[in-house]
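Input (structure):
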């Protein structure tokens, strides 16, 4: 399948030099790099830890309407 990607000039030049040094094509270098990346990816996606503060917090368990009212309290709304 043909596709178009944008690669920085310096990276493209390095890939071309590597292909020439290995007597192979730029396509094979790109495919090898993608395969290596896919194969070495962790099986589990990155999950951001729960960084929330314990307790109810400033707003507690309020509905969006209650939060909105708190935001605009004293501002003529």
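Output (sequence):
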């Amino acid at each position: 399948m043909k596709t178009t990607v944008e690669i920085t000039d310096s990276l493209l030049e390095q890939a071309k030099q590597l292909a020439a040094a290995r007597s192979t094509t730029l396509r094979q270098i790109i495919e090898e790099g993608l395969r290596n990346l896919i194969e070495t990816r962790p099986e589990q996606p990155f999950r951001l830890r729960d960084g929330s503060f314990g307790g109810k917090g400033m707003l507690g368990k309020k509905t969006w309407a209650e939060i909105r009212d708190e935001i605009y309290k004293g501002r003529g709304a």
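Notes: Residues 10 and 44 are 32 Å apart (CA to CA). The chain has three helices and no strands.
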